[in-house]
């Protein structure tokens, strides 16, 4: 297929599937781009130091004849980069490295056509005030994946000073000292001829290949996966904003969930390094699939009572004597097992001031007989409406303004005189007296957000806020051994203007 037909095909596919409304939206703000460029700079410095440089050889014409030279065992002995930056502009990002200094050390040898001037020795090249600036086009392949492209015309490389020093063993050093300037000029020409074409190859072939192979559909359970593919071109303003499908599917067959994506409003928020918008559509598609694949099922036994919950599952314990005295009488001193599962997908709704969840399911209570077999005692049908306001403290998700209402009805019972109305009232009392205070107390401390899968990085300054049909999460990030930088310099520094530095 020719490149043109690939592009045409891409446009056609983009036209067909590109109108999916996004279930998720993500933004990297100027603060985030600055963080990324600082990290990129330290990674480059770390990787480049002592990195080997390919051998160089060639011919050099002089008044006394042609010199065949060879430079080998070359490596970067020193490197510094004053600043690096990533700045978005329509269609992509400018990446700049400013005022780099690179020293290369190695060995050299040469021979003349016929004169006995051949020599060997050591070599040092210092490139000073090196500037690199390139514009990487970032697009969308119409099938969920990002694309990158770098054209030679949007790559600029400049090195202001080059200084070469050759130390030879023989007595002909004067020859090379004489040639110094023209050798430096030759190095400059080689660099100018090779750096951008090499980068173009790196981006257009290697990086493009990596992007082509990234998996935008990621498993979340054994039977469910989330499609994080792009639904449209990324947007480039002062930030980079991307739109993602956000739908959770059954792994075995991708079927669209039976509800529509709610539209996300425009929002210029740049108050954290990264900002994410999660629609209730995305959450509901997860609830739909997790319910259908049987993931909303829990068997409560004495061994898996959540930490911090004080519940005694012994029929002769205080809790059960209070809640279900019939059970204590009929099956005394037994342990219980409570089997819970949803009877329909929970429905989540994000509003401007809270999140609400409507759930329905079954609760089956059994007792464990002395011979360890289970005897089913009764089954309840339960519905619950839960609403709460989510927030954040440091890196914890917190909640307050919790309201829980529930109802139970008796579906099946082995206890003939189980009084469901009394059980309902007592459960409500237990909720008010024991459960709500615990939920409130837990909400104040919150629960930590999951740590990043990226080793060496952590999140900070979490900001969670509500919106109509979405939840917004803003977060900063830091590098673990970068803490001192944050404390010393504060988190926001202006991005330098490249044009000024570059030209
Ligand atoms: C989704 O939107 C389409 C078109 O706007 C409409 O026909 C359909 O009834 C909607 N579905 C639901 C579940 O709201
Ligand atoms: C249940 O509690 C009673 C008394 O509180 C105790 O004698 C009995 O051993 C307990 N049963 C189990 C299975 O732990
Ligand atoms: C949740 O927020 C909505 C407005 O978005 C409000 O009408 C409702 O009363 C709130 N619910 C609770 C339990 O606070
Ligand atoms: C276990 O004990 C229960 C109640 O005592 C009894 O009904 C059941 O048959 C016993 N099961 C086995 C496998 O012995
Ligand atoms: C939950 O909310 C729905 C819809 O608002 C309502 O019909 C139902 O009665 C509520 N159930 C409970 C147990 O509060
Ligand atoms: C975050 O939550 C955990 C668990 O509730 C708690 O131990 C911790 O103190 C909380 N962190 C902060 C900063 O409140
Ligand atoms: C958190 O986000 C909200 C909503 O965007 C914003 O109003 C608020 O200023 C943010 N707080 C901080 C500390 O950035």
Would you give an account of this structure?
This protein is α+β, with helices and mostly antiparallel strands and 503 residues long. The chain has nine helices and 23 strands. It has helices at 3-17, 30-48, 173-212, 280-292, 318-323, 325-330, 420-445, 483-489, 498-502; strands spanning 24-28, 52-53, 56-62, 65-89, 92-112, 119-140, 146-149, 155-168, 217-219, 224-227, 235-236, 240-244, 247-250, 274-279, 297-300, 335-342, 347-350, 355-368, 374-393, 396-413, 447-448, 457-467, 470-479. Strands 2, 3, 4, 5, 6, 7 and 8 form a seven-stranded antiparallel beta sheet that branches. Strands 15, 16, 17, 18, 19, 20 and 21 form a seven-stranded antiparallel beta sheet that branches. The radius of gyration is 33 Å and the shape is elongated. It starts with a helix and ends with a helix. The structure holds 2-acetamido-2-deoxy-beta-D-glucopyranose (7 copies). Residues 258-260 line the site of one 2-acetamido-2-deoxy-beta-D-glucopyranose. Belongs to the BPI/LBP/Plunc superfamily. BPI/LBP family. Residues 27-253 form the Lipid-binding serum glycoprotein N-terminal domain. Keywords: Disulfide bond, Signal.
Alpha-beta content class: alpha+beta
The end-to-end span amounts to 41 Å
Counting H and I runs of at least 4 residues, what is the number of helices? 9
Give me the count of strands: 23
Low-confidence stretches: 1-18, 482-503
Helix content: 25-40%
Name the beta content range. 35-45%
Q: What form results from the Cα inertia axes?
A: elongated
Q: If you compute it from the alpha carbons, what radius of gyration comes out, rounded to the nearest whole angstrom? A: 33 Å
Bound molecules: 2-acetamido-2-deoxy-beta-D-glucopyranose
The largest pleated sheet is described as: 7 strands, antiparallel
Mean pLDDT: 86
Keywords: Disulfide bond, Signal
Organism: Holothuria leucospilota
Pfam families: LBP_BPI_CETP, LBP_BPI_CETP_C
Domain Lipid-binding serum glycoprotein N-terminal: 27-253
């Amino acid at each position: 297929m020719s490149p043109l037909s690939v592009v045409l095909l891409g446009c056609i596919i983009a036209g067909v599937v590109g109108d999916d409304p996004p279930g998720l939206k993500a933004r990297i703000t100027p603060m985030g781009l600055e963080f990324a460029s600082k990290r990129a700079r330290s990674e480059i410095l770390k990787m480049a130091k002592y990195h080997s440089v390919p051998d160089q050889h060639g011919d050099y014409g002089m008044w006394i004849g042609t010199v065949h030279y060879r430079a080998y065992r070359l490596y970067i002995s020193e490197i510094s980069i004053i600043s690096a930056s990533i700045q978005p502009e329509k269609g992509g990002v400018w990446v700049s490295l400013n005022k780099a200094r690179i020293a290369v050390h190695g060995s050299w040898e040469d021979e003349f056509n016929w004169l006995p001037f051949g020599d060997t020795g050591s070599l040092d090249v210092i490139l000073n005030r090196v500037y690199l600036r390139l514009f990487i086009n970032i697009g969308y392949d119409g099938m969920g994946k990002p694309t990158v492209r770098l054209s030679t015309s949007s790559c600029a490389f400049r090195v202001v000073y080059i200084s070469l020093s050759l130390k030879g063993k023989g007595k002909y050093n004067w020859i090379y000292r004489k040639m110094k300037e023209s050798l430096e000029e030759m190095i400059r020409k080689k660099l100018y001829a090779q750096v951008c074409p090499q980068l173009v190859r790196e981006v257009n072939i290697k990086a493009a290949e990596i992007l082509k192979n990234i998996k935008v559909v990621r498993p979340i359970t054994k039977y469910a996966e989330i499609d994080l593919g792009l639904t449209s071109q990324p947007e480039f303003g002062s930030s980079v904003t991307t739109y993602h499908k956000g739908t959770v599917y059954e792994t075995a067959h991708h079927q669209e969930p039976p509800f529509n994506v709610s539209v996300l409003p425009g929002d210029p928020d740049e108050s954290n390094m990264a900002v994410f918008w999660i629609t209730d559509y995305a959450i509901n598609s997860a609830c739909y699939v997790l319910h259908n694949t049987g993931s909303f099922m829990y068997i409560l036994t004495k061994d898996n009572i959540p930490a911090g919950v004080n519940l005694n599952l012994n029929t002769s314990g205080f809790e059960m004597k209070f809640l279900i005295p019939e059970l204590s009488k009929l099956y005394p001193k037994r342990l219980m097992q409570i089997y819970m599962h949803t009877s329909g997908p929970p429905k989540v709704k994000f509003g401007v001031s809270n999140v609400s969840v409507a759930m329905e399911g079954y609760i089956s209570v059994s007792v464990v007989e002395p011979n360890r077999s289970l005897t089913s005692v009764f089954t309840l049908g339960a519905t619950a409406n839960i609403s709460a306001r989510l927030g954040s403290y440091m890196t914890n998700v917190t909640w307050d303004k919790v309201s829980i209402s529930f109802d139970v009805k008796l579906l099946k019972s082995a206890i003939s005189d189980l009084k469901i109305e009394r059980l309902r009232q007592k459960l409500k009392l237990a909720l008010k007296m024991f459960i709500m205070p615990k939920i409130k107390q837990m909400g104040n401390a919150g629960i930590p957000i999951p740590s990043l899968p990226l080793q060496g990085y952590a999140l900070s300054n979490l900001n969670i806020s509500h919106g109509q049909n979405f939840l917004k999460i803003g977060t900063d990030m830091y590098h673990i051994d970068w803490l001192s930088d944050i404390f010393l310099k504060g988190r926001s520094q202006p991005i330098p203007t490249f044009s000024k530095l570059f030209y």
